[in-house]
Every structure is written in C-alpha cells, then in structure tokens.
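Our platform keeps sequence and structure together, in a single record for each protein. Such a record has a labelled line for the sequence and another for the backbone structure tokens. The tokens are whole numbers drawn from a learned vocabulary of local backbone shapes. The remainder of this section carries one protein's record, kept here as part of the documentation:
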Amino acid sequence: MLSSLKALNLLVMFLLELAVYAAVALWGFTASDKWPVKVLLGVGAPVAMIAVWALFGAPRAPYAVHGGGRVVLEALWFGAGAAALAASGRQGWAATFVGVFLVNAALRFLWNQ
C-alpha cells in the first residue's frame, strides 16, 4: 500500500509541474488588454518555464540541482505558479495550489523521493 501512495505522490508532483505551466499561461493571457502582449506572455512565459525546468529540475536535467539548491528551485518554481494564479485573480486556486504543494513536498521529504 505504501508503494502505491508513493507512486501517487509522484503523480501529484508531475501534475503540479503541469499546473505551473497552465497557471503561467493563464497569467500571460490575462496580464494585458493588448493581444500582442497577451500572446507574447501567454506563450513566452510557459516556454521560459519549460526551459528552466528542463535544465535544472527534470529528473534527467543536464544541470540538475540537489539538496538546498533543489529546495530553492522548487520554492521559486511552484511559488511562481501560485503567484501567477493569484495575479490572474484566482487567489483561492493559488492557496489550494500552495497547500497541495506543501503536502506533496513534505511527503516526498518523508519518503525520500
């Protein structure tokens, strides 16, 4: 049973990663009234986030960070997702996102994932 919970926790981590992309895209598309700015931010911001995660956060990242650096990366990464939700007017979703992330992070720490 514990192995199933650990696998579920890793799935939640992956879904949280995807939610960051969606949150940043949502923020980008709602950040301005001008459509060129909407498109630039709505597409560009998630692409930038993808690049950062691919370089530093992904399991096979070429410059993967560990230990304290990983904690800082995750705090900034998932914090950006929560901030994007809040900035786009979804404060309740942002708070829920932070709560799910904190539980997920605590379980990953506890289970050494």
